[in-house]
Amino acid sequence: MLEIRNLHAWYGESHVLHGVDMEVPEGRVVSLLGRNGAGKTTTMRALMGLMGRTKGEIRFGGADLLRLRPDQIARKGIALCPEDRAIFPSLSVTENLFLPPVVAKGGMSVERIYELFPNIRERGSSRGTQLSGGEQQMLAIARILRTGARVLLLDEPTEGLAPVIVQQIARTIAEIKALGFTIILVEQNAHFVEGLADIHYLIENGVIVDRLEGSEFAAKIDRVDRLLAV
């Protein structure tokens, strides 16, 4: 269980998170939904120790993550897949895959990764610049699976992707969940997470404003859409 209690965060002098509370059960998919600027990415960065100033508590594996450095958090088995995917354009697909070190026990084997992402094997010699957005997203997810992470923080994994690729990403996340991984999905696309996430948190202006079980999400999708509307 990953527990976030009364989490506050600042960018410089700007107070961005105002007491975020979330629980992420092991082996579940949890979505964090909100507009641009609502605090979604800041929450993920705080979980990885990447915010300069934070206050509150993030409990995982008996430790308070707010007291740890980013490298120590990674060794706890938590990894962030950023919105920009961070694929190095001058490196090949294989080089990108093997770039980060294995830092925690239980990393997915390369052969298992190739089974989940056959395009990664097929495109191994291609440069990062030659990959489509969907292929880059698959590579970014595969890369953190190899490091030993068991808790995956996926920031806007469907951003800018065609509908058919979005469906493929959803199937991949469902497969990863079935293998026992814990996933936090940061999204603006409510219809993508419907039926995929077990628990949904809605964030607005740095505060969690609602928590919905997966079973009640469809009945409240109109309210969710209004919250996410620009």
Question: In terms of topology, how is this protein built?
Answer:
Elements: E1 2-11, E2 14-24, E3 29-33, H1 40-47, E4 53-60, E5 63-64, H2 70-75, E6 78-81, H3 93-98, H4 110-116, H5 118-122, H6 133-146, E7 151-155, H7 163-178, E8 182-187, H8 190-193, E9 199-204, E10 207-213, H9 214-217, H10 221-228
Parallel strand pairs: 3-8, 3-9, 6-7, 7-8
Antiparallel strand pairs: 1-2, 1-4, 4-5, 9-10
Entry summary:
The protein is built from ten helices and ten strands.
Question: What would your notes on this structure say?
Answer:
The chain has ten helices and ten strands. The mean pLDDT is 92. It is 34% helix and 28% strand. The longest helix is centred in the last third of the chain and has 16 residues, at 163-178. The strands form two sheets. A six-stranded mixed beta sheet has the order 6-7-8-3-9-10, with helices on both faces. The chain has helices at residues 40-47, 70-75, 93-98, 110-116, 118-122, 133-146, 163-178, 190-193, 214-217, 221-228, and strands at residues 2-11, 14-24, 29-33, 53-60, 63-64, 78-81, 151-155, 182-187, 199-204, 207-213. It is globular, with a radius of gyration of 17 Å. The protein has one domain: P-loop containing nucleotide triphosphate hydrolases (Rossmann fold, 3-Layer(aba) Sandwich).
